[in-house]
Specification:
This protein is an alpha/beta fold and about 200 residues long. The strands form 2 sheets. Strands 2-1-3-6-7 form a 5-stranded parallel β-sheet, with helices on both faces. Strands 4-5 form a two-stranded antiparallel ribbon. It has 2 domains: about 130 residues, 3-Layer(aba) Sandwich (Rossmann fold), CATH 3.40.50; about 55 residues, Orthogonal Bundle (Arc Repressor Mutant, subunit A). Helix content is about 50%, strand content about 15%. Helix 6 crosses helix 8 and helix 7 packs across helix 8. The chain contains 9 helices and 7 strands. Strand 4 and strand 5 form a beta hairpin.
Length: about 200
């Protein structure tokens, strides 16, 4: 059965680069592309995909915001995260969705190709096989919801605006914000931003 892959990334060159790799090494694969969370959901609703490759941070949110819907509506789809974001920040949250492939965009081509091949064959990788050194950092113990809110805090948004964006209550945002400061051991948004910058979290 032909594999159908949806590549979601807001950078056209990343999408085209991955498509070129698939065409060269895995010619039988049918590829589609999306550039945002909203477009990803629209493409999924129009057609089923066996495999999804997603960046973590997109123009209209993060992959974490749509993963619950994807998992609920398309439980058999296999998902790989292809990102510059540090794996240690997100891996625990992603594991809750059964996502174990997290590839860094900085990896050499041969490693990316090898891991894409295993991903297409639905092999579950050992942590060391993804080419990403997963290490704890001050944000690695945040929940998926806290990571979503962290993303918007780092964009300078207030609790009310975040609540409206994520369609959740103000109190939910306020509680998560408190937990983020506690878990990261920061006292204010300036310290939080400085810490995130040091760990390449956006």
């Amino acid at each position: 059965m032909q594999k159908k892959v949806l590549i979601t990334d807001d950078h056209p060159m990343v999408r085209k680069g991955l498509m070129a790799l698939f065409a060269h090494y895995f010619g039988e694969v049918k590829i589609s592309e999306a550039c945002s969370c909203n477009e990803t959901m629209r493409k999924l609703m129009k057609s089923g995909y066996s495999h999804l490759i997603m960046d973590m941070v997109l123009p209209d949110g993060t992959a974490l915001e749509i993963l619950p819907d994807i998992r609920s509506l398309y439980p058999l789809s296999h998902i790989l995260i292809f990102s510059m974001q540090p794996a240690g920040t997100y891996q625990r949250a992603l594991n809750n969705y059964g996502i174990y492939y997290y590839l860094s965009k900085t990896l050499p081509e041969d490693i990316i190709v090898r891991q894409l091949g295993k991903f297409l064959c639905n092999e579950c990788p050992a942590p060391e096989e993804t080419g990403v050194q997963i290490q704890d950092n001050p944000f690695s113990f945040l929940t998926a919801r806290e990571l979503e809110i962290l993303h918007y805090l780092l964009k300078g948004m207030g609790s009310s605006e975040i609540g409206n964006t994520l369609n959740i209550k103000y109190n939910t945002v306020a509680t998560a914000r408190t937990h983020i400061f506690e878990k990261s051991r920061t006292n204010n948004i300036v310290e939080l931003f400085e810490l995130a910058t040091r760990h390449n979290v956006t």
